[in-house]
Amino acid sequence: MRAREDATVSSVNRRLAENCYDIMTVDEVAADVGIAKASQCKHFTSKEVLAGGLANFFRNELPQLEGFLGEQRPPDQPRSPPPRAAGLRSW
Prior knowledge:
This protein has 91 residues and is an all-alpha fold. It has helices at 2-18, 26-33, 37-43, 47-70.
């Protein structure tokens, strides 16, 4: 279940980065995740709820992101972002 939710959030993140909210569809997100639209709608009942899932991701991951962004490191010692936040660079 968690893997499907993570895949959904990643798809929404990518679709919003590439296009915009108005263009993104539930069908496209379901296809990205590899599930039927009906299955997608059991967990995310609308496009608004999909976007809310991304907002929840930001809220849950924000402490890790703040720690990552606030850390000072020499340029020759780069640090990778937290794993679940790596896809946010496209925004």
